[in-house]
Write a structure and sequence with these properties.
Strand order of the largest sheet: 1-9-6-4-2-3
Distance between the termini: 41 Å
Largest sheet: 6 strands, parallel
Low-confidence stretches: 2-11
Strand content: 5-15%
Mean pLDDT: 92
Number of helices: 15
Structural class: alpha/beta
Shape: globular
Number of strands: 9
Order of helices and strands: HEHEHHEHEHEEEEEHHHHHHHHH
């Protein structure tokens, strides 16, 4: 009896999440794309009457000369800038507070992020904290950004997180080391520039990992119970662009068109999962990141095929549609038969595995310790159970079995 009550409560809650995703006003940033998009974004900042902005980034981006390029262009259009380049992977509340201190001390009027997902997430939280006047810890969670953040503009230098368009910012608790997301439509930036020239120096390994992050966003959004016609269009567009461009971007890093297409794919995937949400791949990847520091894109790439195998029986039709969108075909007689759908679903899963091999990404993670598996499974299930509208829910034992498989090479 208790299990039945839990089941119906869970289904009702997920329906409420789906309704909220439809009704909440989620804006899209003004988007500039192409080689001159950095200049276009700076011009937009200048005509919005901002005299001084905080540039949020990291040391690696600074060494590449991108911060200097940005601040030069801002000065050219009459906007003074202060730089905070102290962002590290998985920024903590303390990181945000350091950037916020500079923002407040120098009386900045807006924030510009240039970098990967960590820099953008940190910038989102600085912008939110600048106007909401409360501790970072009280901004994380659902709909806790009560006042509009300071004007926020972003220039992603990787094609994977989709942070330039999402309602989320993930920062880590410095005590528990748990990743704590802030989720609020107000966190969507005013404008974003997808400048492929900022991505040409990205190493092949990082290009592959971040590309698989975008692929995971698109796939999980498409398989979500909260998927809509709108999110489906964005997810399919992202998957097509990734299929056509990710390998090129990895093998030929100076291919500007491939870089631009991957940036657009990440943007579309971000639009898809912002409303449709993600699933077990992200839940497990987040836990592995918090536990071992596993890079998020790498964790997604390794976990993705295993979760697709687990979900296959409940997502047969949707996986088959992804196979068709990826131009995969099978010889299975009647194309509308159950056997044809099964064959197509399996073909898509094999396609994901093959892409992983082509990109020279590992198929397992040596860092996972067997004595931690029970804890990893529990934390992953806690994240997913009341947050992600997945096609098929796991039990503790099933999740442990899946994580154990991550330790073993195929």
């Amino acid at each position: 009896m208790e299990q039945k009550i839990y089941f119906w409560l869970h289904m009702l809650y997920m329906q409420c999440l789906k309704l909220a995703a439809k009704l909440l006003p989620i804006t899209k940033p003004t988007l500039f794309i192409g080689k001159d998009s950095l200049k276009q974004l700076c011009h937009t900042v200048s005509i919005m009457g901002l005299d001084k902005v905080l540039v949020v980034s990291d040391e690696g981006i600074d060494k590449l000369g991108f911060i200097k390029r940005l601040t030069f262009e801002l000065e050219r259009v009459g906007v003074h800038s202060e730089v905070f380049k102290g962002v590290v992977p998985d920024p903590t509340y303390h990181t945000v507070e350091k950037g916020l201190g500079i923002y407040q001390k120098l009386k900045c009027q807006g924030v510009i992020a240039i970098g990967g997902g960590s820099s953008i997430d940190c910038a989102k939280m600085i912008a939110a904290a600048a106007t909401n006047k409360k501790p970072i810890k009280k901004l994380v969670g659902l709909l806790r950004v009560w006042k509009d953040p300071a004007p926020l503009f972003v220039l992603p230098t990787t094609a994977g997180t989709g942070s330039e368009v999402t309602v989320a910012a993930v920062v880590s608790d410095p005590v528990s080391h748990a990743k704590t997301p802030a989720l609020d439509p107000k966190l969507v930036p005013i404008a974003a520039a997808l400048d492929p020239t900022l991505m040409l120096a990205l190493p092949a390994e990082i290009t592959a990992q971040t590309g698989m992050d975008a692929m995971t966003h698109a796939i999980e959004a498409y398989l979500s119970r909260n998927a809509t016609q709108e999110t489906d269009r964005y997810a399919i567009a992202a998957i097509k662009l990734i299929n056509e461009n990710l390998e090129k971007a990895v093998l030929f890093g100076q291919n500007t068109q491939a870089r631009q297409n991957m940036a657009l794919a990440s943007y579309y995937a971000g639009l898809a999962f912002t409303k449709a949400s993600v699933g077990y791949v992200h839940a497990i990847a987040h836990t592995l990141g918090a536990k071992y520091g596993t890079p998020h894109g790498l964790a997604n790439a390794v976990v993705l095929p295993h979760v697709l195998e687990y979900s296959k029986s409940s997502a047969l039709q949707r996986l088959a549609e992804l196979a068709k969108a990826s131009d995969l075909s099978v010889n299975a007689g009647n194309p509308n038969s159950e056997s044809a759908r099964l064959a197509l679903a399996e073909a898509f899963i094999e396609h994901v595995k093959a892409l992983q091999v082509k990109l020279k990404l590992p198929t397992h993670l040596d860092s996972i310790l067997e004595e931690h598996i029970e804890e990893i499974a529990k934390q992953s299930l806690n994240e997913a159970q009341w947050n992600y509208p997945v096609p098929k829910y796991m039990q503790q034992e099933e999740c442990e079995k899946l994580i154990l498989a991550l330790c073993t090479a195929r």
